[in-house]
Amino acid sequence: MKTQLKDHLALTKKEWNGTVVLLVLIALVLAAPYAYQWYHKDNTINVTVFNNAIAALNNANRRPLNAPETPRNVLFKFDPNTITAGGWQKLGITAKQAAVIKNYTAKGGRFRKAADLQKIYGLTKVDYARLAPFIIIPQSRAKPSIVIELNAADSSALTKIEGIGPAYAKRILYYRQRLGGFVNKEQLKEVFGMDDLKYDEIKNQVRADAGRIRKININTVTFDKLRPMPYLNYKQVNAIIEYRNQHGDYISMRDLENIAIIDADILRKIGPYLIYK
């Protein structure tokens, strides 16, 4: 039994050397932190140097610590018709709002009085109240009054209207063609992109001669000829044609009242354009 135990615990010379090396490595690992602390003492923080570094950082990235507060938005007198997008942003208007305003003036829009600014989409009542006292709109010299008749004007004539550029002129002519002419100038509000602000700007420069509109013979018009009328949708045009096919010619507006899907408001709008022959 002793012989077997001795055989298990006996070490060869090679194994003994390996054990010694292993013990030496373990001792070195355990002693390393103490040796490092002995040879590398912690340096004391120099408070003056630290404070100087903080001050330099403040000077580089923002105003000095002892400088007076600067207001975020600087209010100044301005003309909304000429101020740049950057100028709007200095007044506290967002870049998106500034882009909307500049797009409006670029297309010929004009602010004639301070209150016109309230009609800009996205501009809050708070913004207007803050900016209103600083708005200055120079009074331009009176120009010879020009009144354009909408049903006879071509694109060149329409662009003589202050506030109407080539794009708006093209839209007005396209809508006039579909409509058959303007019975009254208020119908301009139905033109794509014509909001109340734009209409108020041009309404005194235009008129509509209802005698120039193109009439529609409701008893002979085809589906394709009636379809462009902007006041009627596909189903309503089809109903007008089908009712005529089933009941014969229309005698008056009262016959159209029998078509269920055409209400009084639509009849009022299309009435001036219809003739019964």
Summary tags:
277 residues; mainly alpha; DNA polymerase, domain 1; two-stranded parallel sheet; 13 helices; elongated
Characterization of the model:
The chain has 277 residues and is an all-alpha fold. Among the domains are: 85-134; 150-212, Orthogonal Bundle (DNA polymerase, domain 1), CATH 1.10.150; 216-275, DNA polymerase, domain 1 (Orthogonal Bundle), CATH 1.10.150. The chain contains 13 helices and four strands. The strands form two sheets. The chain has a two-stranded parallel ribbon with strand order 1-2. It is elongated and about 130 Å long.
Q: Into which percent range does the helicity of residues fall?
A: 40-55%
End-to-end Cα distance: 135 Å
- Please describe the biggest sheet, giving its number of strands, its sense, and whether it closes into a barrel: 2 strands, parallel
Instruction: Give the name of the CATH architecture of one domain.
Output: Orthogonal Bundle
**What is the CATH domain class of one domain?**
Mainly Alpha
Structure annotation, total helices: 13
- The name of the CATH superfamily of one domain reads Tex RuvX-like domain-like
Give me the secondary-structure category: mainly alpha
CATH topology of one domain: DNA polymerase, domain 1
Beta strand %: under 5%
Low-confidence spans: pLDDT under 50, at least 5 residues? 67-71
Overall mean pLDDT: 84
Q: Report the order of strands and helices.
A: HHHHHHEHHHEEHHHHE
By DSSP, the count of extended strands is: 4
Cross-sheet strand order for the largest sheet: 1-2
Shape: elongated
C-alpha-based Rg, rounded: 42 Å
Protein name: DNA uptake protein ComE-like DNA-binding protein
GO cellular component, one term: type II protein secretion system complex
Keywords: Membrane, Transmembrane, Transmembrane helix
InterPro entries: Endo/Exo/Phosphatase_dom_1, RuvA_2-like
